[in-house]
Amino acid sequence: xxxxxxxxxxxxxxxxxxxxxxxxxxxxxxxxxxxxxxxxxxxxxxxxxxxxxxxxxxxxxxxxxxxxxxxxxxxxxx
Length: 78
Fold this sequence. Notes:
2 helices; elongated
């Protein structure tokens, strides 16, 4: 693979990840997570011994990125 081909491949991957991030942020709006273990609420009434949940969009950027990265890894593999 030439240096140019490598550069183009990296660019495509970065664009794909950016698109995935934007779609994931939109898809995860309103999804509630346990603020302690960062697991989705789904149908649970409590988690980690608490009944406190937080919406994805209300989480800090680092936590949002981690959730999205975990989704990406589980969808496309590491």
